[in-house]
Amino acid sequence: MLIALPPNLGFFSMTYSALIISTHRATGWSSRHMQRSIRLVVSCLMLMICFGLSQTAAAAPVYLAPPTATSDGPRTGSATAPFVKLSQAIAAIEAGQGDHVLLQDGHYGDVYWTDITPPRMIRIAVDNPGRAHFDIMSLKRMKNLHFVNFSIWPRQPVKKMRSLVNADAQSANLIFEGFDVRGRADAIETYMKWSVEDWTSTWHSNGFFLRGQSMTIRNSTITAMDFSIQTTGPDAVVEGNHIQGFSGDGLRGIGSNNLFRNNLVQDSFKVDTNHDDGFQSWSPKRNGPDSTIENLSVVGNAFIEWTGQVDHPLHGTLQGIGLFDGFYKNVRIENNLVLSTQYHGIALYGARKGSILNNTVLHPYLRSGKFPWIMVKPHKNGTPSKNVTVRGNVAVNFQGIPSAAKDNMVVSPVTPFYQNPRMGDFAAHPDGPLVDSAFGIKFDATMLERVKKAFADR
């Protein structure tokens, strides 16, 4: 008995032949054992064939094209007959057609995607990064989707300020990875030359504004925004991103169980009355006077006020990490670099428990004096902060911390703490006090190089 196998299953065909030959050699073709062996071989092969076919289907992409794409026949989700609606592509995957969506080249314009909630995470990726463009991406009631390598910026001057990537509070479990979000197409090359009108009117946009639970933004670049990344729901993860050029805040985290890690935030522009922060959080007052943000972690980030010309007319003044309106419980501020000409390098108001460990807070032009400082203060209603560990930090000054002198270091302009901080080299100076010490930032080589490159590129 022979079985005709599909031509694309050559491996299984060879396996089938080998099994038959082996069985023949072992038994001869005439015995009853031979018939049983053949039945066993056939059963095994059918399982292998089913597995192979399912794997082939699962590995295949379902294609999505811009809304204006044409097709000569029915849209099947193939490369030559792609869908033009994301809901169709996701439905095809749920029906077993493939396991991920690939976006073809072209302009997708303003997209408003709603009510797509597959039961498992589905990857939606741009096939050729940089070749699929969106003007805005708005999501409502969306869940379990992983967006990869999207390029988003307005092609025309904006009529009113809006967030280029936004998700409502009913959306959840969304991942945004490898995004390139800009105020306009050439912003990476030109934002240092923008006028006040460019920042406040012509190209005035926010970056990410995500309100739902379990939102992740990672390894993305956000350029020339007002407020670059804002998360207001619980369980957000914001990591590995590069924010360059902003006129509001670089990062905002207004939810519990939020993690902000390994982000590089640079170049604050002064174009209005906003007090720009590298990172800012507060506990929403709608939750009552005892409102508390819990388990907030700000770890391994670099907040650099300015990398451009010192005499630039829009040179901003950046507050580093500002937690001004607590309460905060189990807050962790660790291993961050802050370069700021403002008073607040790191400020924590209304802590119920927390730690500020191994941060470096410096004036960008290496001045000593009273600020920027690391400060722990009571809540604005007068309730003292308590159970806050402040240890291993290097800063210009410390405020409201009784053990600051014993457990931390105050920088001196004549002591070489770092290799070349004016040029962004924050490796410990071999002749300084930080070599093999427990003080200051402990960036890995990748993060040190990212900071150095931020200065070199300007």
UniProtKB/TrEMBL annotation:
What Gene3D superfamilies does the annotation carry?
Answer: Single-stranded right-handed beta-helix, Pectin lyase-like (2.160.20.10)
* SUPFAM superfamilies recorded: Pectin lyase-like
**One Pfam family named in its UniProt record:** Beta_helix
The record places domain Right handed beta helix at: 195-360
Name the InterPro entries on file.
Beta_helix, Para_beta_helix_rpt-2, PbH1, Pectin_lyas_fold, Pectin_lyase_fold/virulence
Entries under NCBIfam families matching the protein? para_beta_helix
Instruction: Identify this protein by name.
Output: Right handed beta helix domain-containing protein
Q: Which organism is it from?
A: Tritonibacter aquimaris
